[in-house]
Amino acid sequence: MRDVAVVGFAQRQMTDFDGSPTCVELLVPIFAECYEQTGWTRKDVGFWCSGSSDYLAGRSFSFVSAIDSIGVLPPVNESHVEMDAAWALYEAWLKIQMGEVDTAIVFGFGKSSAGQLRRTLALQLDPYTMTPLWPDTVSLAGLQARLGIDAGRWDEAAMAEVVNRSLTDAEKNEYAVRSGGSSIEDLLARPLYADPLRKHDCAPVTDGAAAIVLAADDRAREVRDRPAWISGIAHNTDGLQLGTRDLTRSGSAERAAAAVGGLGGVEVAELHAPFSHQELLLRDALGLAGDTRINPSGGPLAGNPMFTGGAIRIGEAARRVWDGTADRVLGHATSGPALQQNLVCVMDSATSGGR
Amino acid sequence: MSRTLQAPVTVAFDYTRSTGPVLGRFLTGLHDRRVVGGVLADGRVAVPPPEFDPTTHEPVTEFADVGESGTVTSWTWVSEPVKGQPLDRPFAFALVTLDGADTPLLHAVAVDSPEAMATGMRVRARWAEEPTGGINDLAWFEPESADAGPSPTPADSLEEDLTGIITPVSLDYSYAASPEESAFFRGLAEGRIVGQRCPQCTKVYVPPRSACPVDGIPTEEEVELAHTGTVTTFCIVNVPFLGQQIDPPYVSAYILLDGADIALQHLILDIPAEEVRMGMRVTAVWKPREEWTTSVENISHFAPADEPDADYETYRHHL
Ligand SMILES: [Zn+2]
User: Fold this and answer.
1) Least buried of A23, A338, B141, B296, by fewest C-beta within 10 Å?
2) In B236-297, where does DSSP find H-type helix?
3) Residue B267 pairs with which residues in a beta bridge?
4) Rounded to 5 degrees, what angle do the CA atoms A50, B174, B294 make?
5) Sign of the C-alpha dihedral computed for residues B208, B213, B218 and B220 taken in this order
6) Contact yes or no for B50 and A68 at CB 8 A
7) Cβ atoms of residues A169 and A298 within 8 Å
């Protein structure tokens, strides 16, 4: 295996929906930041991979106009996934492992405000027995939240604690679109939106984009003193049938964590939990220790651009290695209804050879 | 004035789907007002029947009818229903485990308020008046205790299992043009064709782009382009299709406007289709001014200009 690290990260999360920037507009300055962080030009990038969705954009081949922003003439080595960009990162990591390239930029983008997000996402469900009912994302999360409450796996106070901690931490995140903690009592006094969920239990609809830079071996050491070396990366999925899944647990998250040899020693974990109860579920499924610091960025409850929210978790976790806050971190991403698909990316300050 | 132009867009399409033997059987059952489950490898009955066992991944081949009443195992309140959901007033989505089934079915429960919902409550199916052979043939569930009147009379059973369904999808968007595209559309509303120049390679794009595909930077300097140009390539449309506005045959062409570095796609009319050729010089024919909007349709079409054909060398780099 080659040593591959996260060495660059730039993001935008927009609060303004009225004519908010197009994805290309957002991506141009984000790539400029990546070049500035690495000292590279676009010619130093061996592979580009993006995550986005035509359903979100309301136009076919929407990623084609986005790749204008990377400069594609003469042609570049490029690919796309209809998933969160964290899965694009997995593809890029594989490309580097295969020895085809040494460097890659992975990016994701989504203008969730163009349509009605919770309705649009019904298109990712089983098209025979579910999509024709248009079950919205928030309702599916509400069903999951109540199953856990009824089973005694979490309660509304624990969910409010997650919200309060996230929004308090988000005050220090310049990209957060929602921030400001209050108190558990205050949060629980607010009205229910999708019983048992309140609006603050659900990630805000967010337009945004992000990019992550990967580099192997010495290319990574040239860029940073403390690259965030990827020591374990794996993803897994649960079945299509909602009824045959135990929605109070996440088998796929457990399997992904097991595939990287467990998550012991992780000091900081950025979890992609778009609903408050899902953080509680994931902490358990991933087997995170009690003293692991969760989502110091504020997490997805403070801003969750579709097809980018997971990749941002990896970028935020990597920053904790770069700045010396932590030696071992986790970036987690999810995709699909009610945490159907899960990806874990463990990063260390030292390569396996050096440890 | 808003920074960019925005317009509502609806993207709608009907998916034609083959059902296969498992879902065909399930949907045929719903049409006939029966609920069919699939027997999993461990003997549990799953509704809807999955096409393969989620654990062993073996095909599901055994079926069992289950009841049309069941127990709510989880629910949530939909305070703001969205288009296409089973009810257009606030309702509950629920997981309902039907009598005789071991896994829950996702569907709606029609009640007036969340106070009428509880985990463990009993519900029964309310069938649609006119079955169509889809999941919506089960219109929703209602509390067993409610006196909702008699169920509609059963329809005639289908003689054979369904093999296909049509599922319509319709999504509404607010499409916001980029600032560069907005400049182009605003120009059209004034009878001007506006392109922009890349600050690095100096190529002129029309419509202007948020990023030059060569250099990855936004185009900037506005350039007003001529209304004349050269046909670089074209096709004769002979095939009728849904929504077609002109009777075939007609010509759709790439037109390289004088001063631009990228061709614009538009129609060539006022000339028999077989006489259109590469290199032909054309000029924009505008609609009457009172019909102008911020649309490329302000230009009705392009028509032959009274000029000799362009030399191949002048456009060969734009093919
Ligand atoms: Zn250029």
Assistant:
1) B296
2) none
3) B252
4) 110
5) negative
6) no
7) yes
Residue type, A145: A
Is B38:B54 a contact under the CB 8 Å cutoff? no
**Complex ipTM value:** 0.94
Cα B294 to Cα B7: distance, rounded to the nearest angstrom: 10
Q: How far is A16 from A205, CA to CA, in rounded Å?
A: 11
Using the mean position of ligand 1's atoms as its centre, give its distance from the Cα of residue B217 in Å: 7
Question: Rounded to an integer, what is the distance from CA A325 to the centroid of its chain?
Answer: 20
Cα separation of B40 and B51, whole Å?
10
Rounded Cα gap, residues A275 and B35, in angstroms: 33
pLDDT tens per residue, range B203-236: 999 999 989 989 988 898 999 999 999 999 999 9
pLDDT of A72 reads: 85
> Angle of helix A251-259 relative to helix A276-285, nearest 10 degrees?
50
CA distance B244 to B238: 11
Q: What is the per-residue pLDDT across A164-211, written as a single tens digit (0 to 9) for each?
A: 999 999 999 999 999 999 999 999 999 999 999 999 999 999 999 999
**Distance (Å, whole) CA A125 – CA A144:** 16
Which chain B residues touch A134 with a CB distance below 8 Å?
Answer: 82-85
Task: Give distance in angstroms: CA of B207 to centre of ligand 1.
Answer: 14
**Distance from B169 to chain A by nearest Cα, in Å?**
8
Alpha-carbon distance B137 to B29, whole Å?
10
Output the CA B203–ligand 1 centroid distance in Å: 6
B136 touches chain A (CB under 8 A): yes
Beta-bridge mates of residue B291: none
Token representation of residue B14: 């009907």
Q: Do B85 and A146 touch (CB under 8 A)?
A: no
Q: What is the pTM of this model?
A: 0.94
Q: CA-CA distance, A144 to A123, in Å (whole number)?
A: 19
